[in-house]
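WARN no homologs supplied; continuing
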Amino acid sequence: MSNSNLRADAARVILAVIDQGQSMGQALPRAQRHYVDGRDKGLLAEICYGVMRTLPQLDTQLRRQLEKPLSGKKRIIHCVLLAGLYQLKHTRVASHAVISETVEACRELRAPGMTGLVNGVLRSLQRNIDQLMDEQFEAETVQTLHPSWLLKRLQAAYPQQWQQVVEANNQQPPLWLRNNISSQSRSDYLEELEEEGIDAVVGDSDDAFRLLQATDVTKLPGFKIGAVSVQDLSAQRSAQLLDCQAGDEVLDVCAAPGGKTCHMLERQPKIAKMVAVDLSKERLKRVQQNLDRIGLDAELRDGDARYPVQWAPGQQFDRILLDAPCSATGVIRRNPDSKWLRRDADIAQLAEVQREILDAMWAILKPGGTLLYATCSVLPEENAEQIKAFLNKTGDAMLSPIQPQESAEQPGWQLLPQQDGGDGFYYARLIKKA
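OK structure emitted
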């Protein structure tokens, strides 16, 4: 257990994201280190992710209760109230416990003079909780829980489907796992889960299955020895589409945290060489941890994917997986803070980096080799438009269609996020003419 107040820690995380521009991936693990009990870690994550998912609505309803905005040093109290309101609306925590713990958080946050305000605001919100739950919002950003710049892009790209994308983005993400085919068949593992009383359904990717109820994956049969791994349904398609063969020299660029590296090795144990590259030495530690858990080997290198001469001088590869840095607009349900951290101007900058990396990777692909371009984005500028421009300027590049309707004018396979399905992803498979 921890002596830290969980609601105070939630407020610190929320403040770090919305005011200081930190990602949840940076701020939340720091706060979770205070806790040993997995339930406390889980509740802290649920509050922080939930606030990010529903931020405009919480903020709108909270501000009505305040005579004046809480600014400056009082912003942390605004954040603790957001955490309290989220719990009242969206969790099963008893209202009296939410209110008392949130009031107590003020003392840990060195704002004992704010306890009366916090108590009064939360009690008023609790009395009106039914109306708050049923409220319809006029402002599109508040109604859809998406920033206006992103809504405009989604509406332009998917005039018939943008609402489905928004709805999927606002859901809690499903828990997809990857069966390790080198350990057992998927059907055998599902039988093992059934014996443990764990319900699961298969996905339409070879090794994928989804748990119907949240669980501690580290306690699943064989997890600690690599029999199964957490990986989204859409992300699992990478290894299947690249289809590495025995004797191939393979490069996974922008590889962290290593799920795709491991999946390729699971599916083809006779890969001659697997090189995994990432810009961050720290993130490569995660790749090594995943390899170690499953019992796999790969050569890890840190470096900028735009400059392979620095980390792969004179080398070429038979197959390259380029999981390009992107806006992550296809995985918003897993990273709801990205809605409020990302800016419209970022998209053009990301597209330029993608162009540079794609050109650099093409130069080290062997003639006759295959490059799979992948993003977890749903924005055409990063996906189909990127590949179309590349094909137009690159004489030795040829599209290898994944879907029958693909063409040089509309290349690649765009997956949109689906409730209970996979995340938003884009794939384009390219062959280098011999």
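The first strand starts at residue 175 and ends at 179.
OK
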